[in-house]
Amino acid sequence: RRKVDSEGRRFQDRWKVEYFFTEIENHCVCLICQETVAVYKEFNVKRHYQSRHSTYDKLTGHDRSEKLKQLEAVLIECVMKMVENICPEKKQEFANICLARNTVARRIEEISSDIKRQLTSKGVDFDFFSIACDESTDLSDTAQLLIFMRGVDDEMNVTEELLDLQSLTDQTRGKDLFVSVSSAIDDMKLPWNKVTGIITDGAPAMVGERSGLSTLICNKVIEEGGKAIKLHCIIHQQVLCAKHLKYDHVMKPVLKTINFIRSKALCHRQFKQFLLDIQAEYEDVLYHNDVRWLSRGSALQRFYSLRKEIGEFLETKGQPMRELSDPIWLADLGFLVDITKHLNVLNTSLQGKDAAVNQLYSHLKAFGTKLQLFIRQLSQTQPNTIHFSALQEIMNSFPQDNISAQTSRYAADIASLAGEFKRRFQDFAAIEKEISLFSSPFSVDPDDAPDQLQLELIELHCDSELRSRHQQLSLVNFYRQLDKRAGFKKMLSLFGSTYMCEKTFSAMNFNKNRVRTRLSDSHLRDILRIKT
């Protein structure tokens, strides 16, 4: 015979209005008499209601809903009175508890639907918009495609929101992704000829020349009479450039030592206690995770700061690290710590919501100029290491060793890194003139501007009042003063990175974790829409 517990019965939300029942701690409770029905079965609930509270049948429609609210309020008041007497310090926690687990799900669905309705109404007013796409796999092995939209209306107001989360249960080829993106755009009734660009993480399915998502999107826009550009996320490209400086002869010993300390519980406890006993600056070393953008720099910085303590601890374990006594290796470590620190500062500046493409590109250009400064300073006869504090510390610690002779090698490595930056960011370099025109219209020669903007740009240069406003107002507020601003709205609508996608994937992994793998795709979409 089948057991009741195996039938998977659940409380139905409609029982609240129909029979004045609610769910409290997995029990079906009558709101009128507070009695409990043993089994989640409609027959039992209905029988209880008809046999004891049939007088409430005269209440219908709005009156019945109001009565339900009154009964729930009475129950909550009784619970709060009890809490005040038993544990008054937790009164606020109990006040935030919902009566039924389905209530939370229903409210999330309603909020998500309302956000979507608002976005749909805003989308009607968009003059231009671009999309950012990224794909990842959740814990249930479902491919989730995030689609963000950045739209600009006639008043230069920017809206950056989650357009949709598309779940793919089969292949994730470019054409499969294109079908999902097309469905999301068509569902929101957005015109394709207003798409100005698409930015992705650079995966083959995203950027393939023939059948990649970006190519298919741009072809669709052209068919509809528009023009869109393809961009590779500026943060992803920066991370790839950072990996150009491998320095394996430094990284491998460092990671081996970190893993030796942290991989065994006893060794790890002893190391932390050792640092505590000697009152070290930090209390532990950091693991390196190649996926996390800032992990390499953080792990290296912590290792460098604790290098003396690590050397002493390894000696007590009979596992001396010979590299820590090699001045040249220590100089290489110091240089790598410093350059990754500069790269991490750049990466952090590129993160954030609502960042315009011109702002991100200006950070990139500034870093390129910094690299040229580093090259010149390290190439001098008397190297200037003012911007390389760790390297300078090592050089001061070993004055008898000719470490300064290594600086020419470091300058060559930085030159190679600068070349990698120049090679990778060709997609942004291709629109550099448009970016400059948008961010600094008064410094652009009309001859270098697009033909349709040359006359307008000349008038702009000759208007002293507008020049004064450009200096006083923010860029967006300045363009709101202009009558003709279509070209500027296109540039403002472009995404510069897929930062919002990466941030939302973190939220997805937090919500759909190993104990919540049964979270449905639709509920996951609703949660992420509210989260963003």
What would you say about this model in short?
This protein is α/β, with parallel strands linked by helices and 532 residues long. It has helices at 14-19, 42-52, 61-86, 91-95, 101-123, 174-187, 204-207, 213-223, 234-242, 248-263, 265-277, 295-305, 307-316, 327-350, 357-378, 389-397, 407-424, 426-429, 432-439, 454-462, 464-472, 475-479, 486-492, 499-511, 521-531; strands spanning 21-24, 27-30, 36-37, 126-137, 143-153, 158-168, 195-200, 229-232.
Keywords:
532 residues, alpha/beta, Nucleotidyltransferase, domain 5, 4 domains, five-stranded mixed β-sheet, three-stranded antiparallel β-sheet, 25 helices, 8 strands, 10% strand, globular, disordered N terminus
Question: How is this structure best described in words?
Answer:
The chain is α/β, with parallel strands linked by helices and 532 residues long. It folds into 4 domains: 13-96, no CATH class; 104-233 and 493-531, Nucleotidyltransferase, domain 5 (2-Layer Sandwich); 240-427, no CATH class; 433-492, no CATH class. The chain is built from 25 helices and 8 strands. The strands form 2 sheets. It has a 5-stranded mixed beta sheet, with helices on both faces. A hairpin with a 5-residue loop joins strand 4 and strand 5. Helix 9 runs antiparallel to helix 14 (327-350), helix 10 (248-263) crosses helix 11 (265-277) and helix 12 packs antiparallel against helix 14 (327-350). The two termini are 48 Å apart. This is SPIN-DOC-like zinc-finger domain-containing protein. It comes from Pelodiscus sinensis. InterPro entries: RNaseH-like_sf, SPIN-DOC_Znf-C2H2.
